[in-house]
Design goal:
Elements: E1 2-3, E2 6-9, H1 13-24, E3 32-35, H2 43-48, H3 77-90, E4 95-96, E5 101-106, E6 112-116, E7 120-123, E8 125-128, E9 151-152, E10 164-168, H4 172-183, E11 187-192, H5 202-213, E12 218-221, E13 225-231, E14 234-239, E15 247-249, E16 251-254, H6 262-268, E17 288-290, H7 303-320
Parallel strand pairs: 1-7, 2-3, 2-8, 3-4, 8-17, 9-16, 10-11, 10-16, 11-12
Antiparallel strand pairs: 5-6, 6-7, 13-14, 14-15
Helix pairs in contact: 1-7, 4-5
The structure holds flavin-adenine dinucleotide.
Length: 333
């Protein structure tokens, strides 16, 4: 059993920014532990973003007005990880890798016990920063189990020999996947239930429309998938509208966004029933805060939003539950 004033679950952008802000408010790095399920920081970004993907500061058109120390501008994936690692080293953050939280219990004295299989941490406040990316939205149609390994939710494991790829979705991820896969030499079909690319940021909509106009991709506008069957080692995709005949592809990439990991949060003992609106931070369990994607409400998160939410959540925690040694940091000017 270990005791820390502050436990942060998840070492992604939100978890790291929360730790930095707590240090800016006077805590020492030894007062804070970050519990990370996988073996590296920001594992979801590391494992789900294609290496060629540009990291956009104003993702989904959200303006990047950073309120704390952490902030990104448009950059490459490598530059992003160099930045995170530099900050982690500078602030000597303590991160426990390969630990998954199994239970969070509020104690009678107001503290929490955060249990993993390996250890139990007692603390005054908990920041939950596990993001939404581990829970991609699925197609919700019957899929032959024989080809379940041909259904992907990112493009990290698409092999060069898997020539024909169906990308499903109409948002920024589908635009980026379509562009990158085409550049990698795949033959890409894009299926979207809408007709025009209004859910993408301007640049992605322009790129996708150019690929359609130049006939570099095949675009199935207003198409709804009915089911996916197996045929030898390929997938046969059936559409609801007869104007689209069955399509044989090597793999399907589902890019329909992510969902809140409500089941997992409930398993931990965290109720998610009272959350409403565009932004929320403290959960119904007083002293337990959501940060990053988990606090982003309906409009969804971004990296700079995650950084900012860490600052806001620490500020709320200092006001209500912690005896923070220093006042809130104010940027000069
Ligand atoms: C395809 C795609 C492209 C995107 N592109 C951009 C972009 O260009 N620019 C931008 O600003 N945003 C982009 N986003 C959104 C951005 O990635 C997220 O909003 C941001 O990463 C959220 O940060 P977070 O810290 O809340 O969660 P995450 O980045 O998901 O980090 C969560 C961390 O918690 C860990 N974790 C998960 N479960 C557990 C658990 N049970 N116990 C312990 N640790 C756990 C994870 O391994 C991870 O390290 C994109 C998202 C997607 C899906």
């Amino acid at each position: 059993m270990s005791t820390f004033p502050i436990v942060i679950i998840g070492a992604g952008p939100a978890g790291i920014a929360t730790a930095i802000e707590a240090i800016n408010r006077g805590y020492k790095s030894e007062d804070i532990v970050i519990i990370e399920r996988f073996g590296e920081v920001a594992y979801m970004i590391s494992s789900k973003y294609p290496d060629e993907k540009p990291i956009l500061a104003n993702y989904k058109g959200r303006m990047a007005a950073c309120i704390g120390d952490m902030c990104i501008t448009d950059m490459t994936k490598k530059e992003f990880f160099d930045y995170l690692n530099e900050v982690i080293t500078k602030y000597k953050l303590k991160i426990e890798f390969h630990q998954q939280v199994t239970q969070i219990t509020k104690l009678r004295n107001g503290q929490f016990n955060v249990a993993t299989k390996e250890d139990t941490y007692t603390c005054d406040v908990v920041f939950v920063a596990i993001g939404n990316m581990a829970a991609p939205r699925n197609l919700g149609v019957p899929i032959d189990p024989k080809i379940s390994d041909k259904i992907h939710y990112d493009i990290q494991n698409i092999k060069a020999e898997q020539r024909c790829v169906l990308v499903v979705g109409g948002g920024d991820s589908s635009a980026e996947y379509t562009k990158i896969l085409t550049e990698r030499g795949h033959s890409v079909v894009l299926s979207y239930r809408g007709s025009s690319f209004t859910r993408m940021i301007e640049q992605n909509a322009k790129n996708t429309q150019s690929l359609v106009d130049e006939k570099k991709i095949h675009y199935l506008s207003e198409s709804l998938i009915e089911r996916i069957d197996a045929k030898d080692s390929s997938s046969v995709v059936y559409f609801k509208d007869e104007k689209y005949p069955p399509l044989i592809v090597s793999v399907v990439v589902v890019a329909l966004g992510t969902e809140r990991p409500t089941n997992y949060l409930n398993t931990l003992g965290i109720s998610t029933k009272t959350e409403t609106g565009e932004f929320f931070s403290e959960s119904s369990m007083k002293g337990l805060f959501f940060v990053g994607d988990l606090a982003s409400g309906k409009s969804g998160g971004s990296i700079n939003f995650a950084f900012n939410s860490g600052v806001k959540a620490v500020s709320e925690a200092c006001d209500m539950h912690l005896d923070c040694p220093l006042p809130a940091y104010r940027k000069a000017g």
